[in-house]
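During data preparation, a discrete fold description was generated, and the record follows.
___
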Amino acid sequence: MVLASGVFGPTSDIKHWFQTEALQILLIALGAVLLCRFVKWGGNRITARIDRKFQGSDQLVRTERSKHNHAMTQVISYVTIGVVAIVAILNIVARFGVPITSLVAPATVLGAGLGFGAQRIVQDFLAGFFIITERQYGYGDVVSIVVPSGIEPAEGTVEDVTLRYTRLRNADGEVITIPNGQIVKASNLSRDWARSVIDVPVPPNADVNHVTDVLIEVGEAAFEDKKLNKYLLDAPTVMGIESLTVDAVHLRMVARTLPGKQFEVGRELRVRVARALLRYGIIVPDIMETASQPTSQPMSVAQEDKE
């Protein structure tokens, strides 16, 4: 075995090395493993506490601060574990008699090579850093992410956000892992508040004023219903005629909801609208479409009227 000072000499030198340096290496490795486990355990305790606090409260959705704290705890845990591992490796290398300063030049060359060969990884880390610091989305958010090679955007609930990747779970239960550097566009569907938009098609010969009154009645009844009232920020409104086709007149109904609840509210409102139209003998020519439009800032009445 060769060290910086030369070749092992007598057996006593080998025995002395095992009693000193080897023992220190073992203690450093063991301490690093225990410290990493402790950091991971502490991070899990903090995130579990955040989850219990939300589940034990009367809040229907997570606050932006809670989602950000959850994501930051995970990132800090991963970064701390990485730092501990690097420090432990450097100390172990030093115990073998290799001076750390002599590794500066090779490390520089290696770093330059990795910089050219691992540009995508560096891009992932930089993108992840800005995603977390700018609070674009966090744990529990419902997001829609577009990647360069993706035909359709990946939609789902954020289960994990790190500096390198974002992990989603979609409505089918599939887990989607997306490198942060590959994200072209990220739409947060559960930020501050959301909108459930329902386009209601009616026959061209139908009385539009009467249909509008029916939709207003449905919206008011939904807002007074205890099941939907906790999700609605205000009573659903009828925007008027959205489009005209040969076979149908499309009227738009809009409801502002709590973050992430626009899908549930949209499904329930669509059922209520279909029942109300059937009760009044109004035949829907085709299937109603429900869309959800997230937003981070409230829109003015003029902007809503413009839509």
Notes: The first strand starts at residue 2 and ends at 3. Residues 202 and 208 are 8 Å apart (CA to CA).
